Amino acid sequence: MKSASNRIKITWVFIALSLAGAIFLMVSMMTQGGKWATSSRNAHLYVNGTLIGAGNITDADGTILCSTSDGKRTFAEDSEVRSSLLHVVGDNYGFISSSVQNQYRTNLSGYNRIMGVWELCNYEQGSEVNLTVKSQACKTAYEALGGRKGAVCVYNYKTGAVLVSVSTPAYDPENIPDDINDNDAYEGVYINRVTMGLYPPGSTFKVITTAAAIDNVSGEMSKTFYCDGAYHTSYGDIKCMSEHGNVQLKEALAKSCNSAFAEIANDVGGKALQKTAEDFGYNQNISLGKLGVYKSVIKTAKDDQLELGWAGIGQSTTLVTPLLQTRIMGAIANGGEPVEPYLVQKVTSASGFTKEVALTKTGSRAVSEETAAELKSLLRNNFEAQYGDWHFSEGLNPCGKSGTAETEPDKTPHAWFAGFLDNEEYPYAFAVIVEEGGSGSEVALPVAAEVVNALAQAE
Ligand SMILES: [Zn+2]
């Protein structure tokens, strides 16, 4: 009797294991099916690493950025458009892992969980992916960077549509250079610097320090700071670019006075400064559809006078991506609420069915409407008092802040410019970094202006 009961038990265990296995397989099919079907090892979809039969990738105006013909995956006609959009579109070899070709390959192949690869088999074409980028403006950005390493990002702060996303160095996916892995000029070429480049923010961070001061220290806007060319602490000094004498916050921001901002950071305190930065998206996951974005980081909670002084001028351990810089400017322009950026506008099946469409999504509030209005007026004053509007086409109403971010003692600093247009017709927020470019207002600002002018002119 005992052995019979054991056999029954064993039978039940077998049945349970088989059921668990079947359920596991079904769940895996549901969740992993797309990856299996579109794996680069699947010979029905890939020939020599090329995603054959995959749908078109187009820009916002319908220009084809990538398509399939005669079993070959080809890119935009213009070689500079191809290079400028390398990190967004990708290549044929999957070198740019964060690209649309790579991250949206399931859509491009026409695979879906219910119908499998039916769409591809019946139409010999996968789904079409429409992007939000404007390829001509991306080309302008690529040319404006002029062979220097860096990034340009522009987005519509009312809708979230990313209009320009350019990272350099880049290469033409139709003509990959032979020395790409040996030549220093291609260092970090596979990284999309817009979403994955982490840089010290330098003086662009003074905008966050200002926001923290407005919200946490009463009377800080009318306080007078004295700059004798440095901010002094018992642990060492923080140098300023000039001797500004007596300045108030508004003037200190326009002149980018380090002495005043190191003191402001100490008036605010590490905890409040970090909290304000986090409200603007530091230490938070920022989404860009299926495309990966690195987290920008800040840690200033320690109340060390010198360290906090450095943090207040963006020269501590703080690191930021050009995408977050753009979103921060978008939040200020948009009354304190950031709109989440996106790059894929729509995915349409070969049969004309809309499978995915981007929706405007507002992120959590960074600052109050009143604080945003005050910051906007200060960033507008930076142009009126310091940079001049002349870089931009007439009437665009630019607002923004430059940054010259020190990296290593013997290296030229990175040039930053982050800003937005206070303009209903052209609601653009933008950020530009030129690695080892030097002065932010002299080097990065003209790049930003050229790209934004081209965008406004094309509308
Ligand atoms: Zn100063």
How would you summarize this macromolecular structure in one to three sentences?
This protein is of the alpha+beta class. The chain has a domain of 248 residues: DD-peptidase/beta-lactamase superfamily (Beta-lactamase, 3-Layer(aba) Sandwich).
Please, what is the average pLDDT? 90
Helical amount among residues, as a percent range?
25-40%
Percent strand:
15-25%
**Principal-axes shape call:** globular
Q: What is the CATH class name of the domain at 195-343 and 360-458?
A: Alpha Beta
> According to CATH, what is the topology of the domain at 195-343 and 360-458?
Beta-lactamase
- What's the alpha carbon Rg, rounded to whole Å? 26 Å
Distance between the termini: 86 Å
Bound molecules: zinc ion
Topology record:
Blueprint: H1 2-37, E1 46-47, E2 50-51, E3 57-58, E4 64-69, E5 72-75, H2 79-84, H3 86-89, H4 100-103, H5 105-109, H6 118-123, E6 128-131, H7 135-145, E7 150-156, E8 162-168, H8 193-196, H9 206-216, E9 225-227, E10 230-233, E11 236-239, E12 245-247, H10 249-255, H11 258-268, H12 270-279, H13 305-312, H14 322-333, E13 344-348, E14 354-357, H15 369-387, E15 398-405, E16 414-421, E17 428-434, H16 440-458
Helix pairs in contact: 7-16, 9-11, 9-12, 9-15, 10-15, 11-13
The protein binds zinc ion.
